[in-house]
Structure formats: C-alpha cells, structure tokens
C-alpha cells in the first residue's frame, strides 16, 4: 500500500516534466520549422528574381529580331518578379514595338532633324541640303503607301546647309549655310517651298565654317543666327521677305558649340569651346546683354532650353546638368542626370518639350534615352528608343512629347509615344490588354535556364499564360 501510495505521489511530477518536455519539443520544432521556412522562402525569392531577370535579359536580346517572343518574355518577367529592372525592360520592348510600327522617313544618313511644334512638318538635313516632310501621312497607319521625299531646301548659291530651324506652326523655316548666310523659307505650301530672303550672319576672318546655329521664336517673328566665330545677329521677321537686322553682337571669342533660344525670343544661352555657357538677355533686341555664366565643371557638348527660358540643360560626358534661370543673373543648378548607363558618354543632341516635362537625349550608343523631368529634383528615366543605327546625331520632340524623331547614320525614324505614360505606369497591364501571350514548353526550356515550369502554369495547361503567371506562382 505504501509503495502504491508513493507511486501515486511521484506520477504527477513526472507528468508535469513530460508535458514540459513535450511543449519544449514542440516549440523547438515550430521555431526550427519557421527558420527552415524563412531560409526556403529566401531561396525561393532569389530563384524567382534570377528567373525574372534572366527572362528580361533574353527579351532585350530579342527585340531586334523577334518582337513577339521578346514581349512574351518581358511580360513573364514582370509577372514573376515586378521590379525596376523587369519593368524597364518591358517598357523598352513595348515602346520600341510601337516606334517600329512607323516606317522610317529615309534610310539615307542624316545629321540633323527638326520638327514643328504641332508635329505637322519636319526637316531632315544631310550633307548639303534639308529635306521637307509632311508628317501626316507618315504618322497615319491607315496610309499604306507613304509618299516619297518632297522638295529640298538648298543652300544660298553654291553653299551647303549647316543647320535648320522651324517655327512652331511649321510655316517658316531657316537654313544656315556654310557661306555665313541664313535663308528664310515659306513652307505654307509644303509641295513648293518658297525662298523669301537671305540674311548675313556677320562673318569674320578667324573661322570660315559659316553658320553654326539658327533659331526662331515660337511665332516666327524673331530669328537669331550664330556663326562659328561667335557672332550673334538678331533679326526681325515681321516681314519675312524683308528681314530687318536688329543687332550684331560678338558673343564669344572662340568657336560656338551650341545655342538655344526661348520661345519668346528674350532669353538665349551660348556654349563655346572653352566650356563657357553664357546667358543672354534679348529683351531689348537692339542691345543684347550678356549676363551670368554657368559654372561648368567639364566640357559641354549640347544643350536645350525650355520654352519659357527658365530651364536650360547642358550635356557633357555621361551627365546632364539641369539649370534654373528664373533669375538670369544668378543661375542655379537644379540637379544632375547620370546618363552614363544609357551609353551616352557624349551627348550628341537633346530635345525638351515646352512644358519641361519630357527630355529626349541622343548619343553614340545608337539609341535615344527618354526622361521624365516633371519633378526637376527627381528626374526619372522613362524608356530607351532604339535607333537601329551606329550613332544618333540629332533628336526632336513634338511639343506634346507624343512624337519623337531621331536622325543618324541609318536615316531618320520616328516614334509614336502617345501611350507612353500608360505603358510606363503599368506595362504588363497595357500589354495584356492588347495581347494574349503564352510560352510553350519548348520556349520555357530554352529561356528559363532549367527552372521547373510547373509552379508557373495551371496543372491542366500545356503552356504558361504570361498574363496569369502571377496567379499560379
């Protein structure tokens, strides 16, 4: 009886210990399971990221040769892992697709392209003359037979055209020639351009390369000519057939690299070979006043100015400086864009929309880089426009930013950017709304790097639906 009683007294303690051990074991199992799950989860996430980036890379490689597959792989990459890299890749593929839907204006090498603000007229310059284009039939996909090139604007006498400019409405054109003259053209009838007048650019004897840049105010009433010597002449074009020279100013003592004029013709900026960027007040056109200089740390290549003259962009090696000219006597550097990853180690040209929100850059990489400057302190890269040429020498944007032109070694091409904002906001949603794409087992085996596809498709399907890939994975 005593032994039985003793046993009964000990058992509760053993039970308590056993329960405690069981609880501890359970805790260890749970903790261990959670730790394993976290490790497994990390591995799974890493696998998805690697797969998505691999598909995005294959998509980029296929853009020039197989758009459909490039689009499918890009959509799948975003569905598997939506990050900046996969999203940017799909945006570039879609933008390029819609750009290529428009035929090139010409496949002859072009060194400069200009477009009117309304997008009705474009000028492309080759070695010696400027070609006039009516863009309406080219931008209309319903027009199957695109027109041949229409008349050219030739230099004065035996001279060659160096540079061009267009008024906002496309009815007035300027050509700057290598004999140091500029010609005013009436483009009211695009089929028959009319030479109205010739203006002297104030030639000196130091350099003999003629006119470097010409510019027109938005209304076409003011013209500015800058020659390689640094002589700037301002002209009144109220009567286009009888231009009146308002002033002649020695803007620089060394050759000019670039020149920009505000839409109202009251603010200008010059950049010379000594890396000086000078701001000019042309409010009194008879007496231009040289104001402050921008403090450039490196050699400047090209620049662009906003329509109101309050923002100017200076391009140099791999960087774009954004300057605020609200106070022309005290320019302030807003920010700097690093464009080196766009292969723009030297910026050949740039175009800025009048509202300062969209910027197109061109450089030696054979493509253009499109940027969003809506918030100047936080510029954002939007897309790459592949020019399919060795070098893009000149770019132009329509005033609303919905049409882009690029000129270079392979001619002039243009891009429909009307849906760009929608595409950038959600490229997969836009693409799925237009295309129902599927990746076959053979394609998955070829591009997915050996990853099991069962996680990314429905069990009863023999292919992967790229628009539903995030549902099944």
TrEMBL record:
UniProt entry tagged with the keyword Coiled coil: no
Annotated keywords: Membrane, Repeat, Transmembrane, Transmembrane helix, WD repeat
Record field: transmembrane: 17-36
One Pfam family cited in the UniProt record for this chain: WD40
Coiled-coil ranges from the UniProt annotation: none
UniProt keyword Membrane present: yes
SMART domains the UniProt entry points to: WD40
InterPro entries: WD40/YVTN_repeat-like_dom_sf, WD40_repeat_CS, WD40_rpt
Entries under PANTHER family matching the protein: F-BOX AND WD REPEAT DOMAIN CONTAINING 7 (PTHR19848:SF8), WD40 REPEAT PROTEIN (PTHR19848)
Protein name: WD40 repeat protein
Native source organism of the sequence: Streptosporangium saharense
Taxonomic lineage of the native organism: Bacteria, Bacillati, Actinomycetota, Actinomycetes, Streptosporangiales
């Amino acid at each position: 009886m005593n032994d039985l009683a003793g046993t009964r007294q000990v058992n509760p303690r053993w039970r308590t210990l056993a329960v405690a051990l069981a609880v501890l074991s359970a805790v260890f199992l749970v903790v261990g399971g959670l730790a394993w799950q976290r490790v497994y989860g990390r591995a799974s996430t890493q696998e998805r990221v690697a797969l998505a980036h691999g598909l995005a890379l294959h998509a980029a490689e296929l853009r020039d040769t197989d758009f459909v597959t490039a689009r499918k792989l890009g959509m799948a990459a975003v569905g598997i892992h939506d990050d900046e890299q996969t999203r940017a890749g799909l945006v570039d593929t879609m933008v390029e697709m819609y750009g290529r839907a428009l035929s090139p204006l010409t496949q002859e090498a072009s060194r400069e392209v200009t477009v009117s603000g309304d997008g009705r007229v474009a000028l492309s310059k080759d070695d010696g003359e400027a070609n006039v284009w009516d863009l309406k039939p080219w931008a209309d996909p319903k027009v199957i037979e695109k027109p041949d090139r229409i008349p050219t604007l030739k230099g004065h006498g035996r001279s060659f055209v160096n540079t061009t400019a267009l008024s906002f409405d496309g009815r007035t054109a300027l050509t700057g020639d290598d004999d140091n003259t500029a010609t005013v053209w009436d483009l009211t009838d695009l089929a028959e351009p009319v030479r109205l007048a010739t203006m002297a650019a104030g030639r000196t004897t130091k350099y003999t390369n003629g006119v470097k840049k010409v510019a027109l105010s938005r209304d076409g009433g003011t013209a500015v000519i800058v020659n390689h010597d640094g002589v700037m002449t301002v002209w009144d074009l109220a009567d286009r057939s009888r231009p009146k020279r308002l002033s002649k100013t020695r803007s620089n003592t060394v050759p000019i690299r670039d020149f920009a004029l505000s839409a109202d013709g009251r603010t200008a900026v010059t950049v010379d070979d000594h890396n000086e960027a000078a701001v000019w007040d042309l409010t009194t056109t008879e007496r231009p006043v040289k104001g402050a200089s921008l403090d450039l740390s490196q050699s400047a290549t090209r620049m662009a100015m906003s329509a109101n003259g309050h923002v100017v962009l200076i391009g140099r090696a791999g960087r774009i400086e954004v300057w605020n000219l609200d106070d022309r006597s005290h320019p302030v550097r807003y920010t700097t864009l690093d464009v080196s990853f766009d292969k723009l180690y030297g910026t050949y040209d740039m175009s800025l929309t009048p509202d300062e929100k969209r910027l197109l850059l061109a450089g030696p990489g054979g493509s253009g880089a499109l940027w969003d400057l809506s918030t100047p302190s936080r510029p954002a890269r939007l897309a790459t426009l592949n020019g399919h040429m060795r070098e893009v020498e000149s770019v132009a944007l329509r005033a609303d930013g919905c049409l882009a032109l690029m000129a270079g070694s392979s001619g002039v091409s243009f891009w429909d950017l009307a849906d760009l904002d929608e595409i950038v906001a959600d490229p997969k949603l836009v693409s799925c709304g237009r295309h129902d794409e599927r990746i076959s087992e053979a394609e998955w085996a070829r591009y997915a790097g050996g990853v099991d596809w069962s996680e990314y498709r429905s069990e009863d399907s023999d292919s992967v639906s790229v628009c539903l890939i995030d549902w099944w994975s």
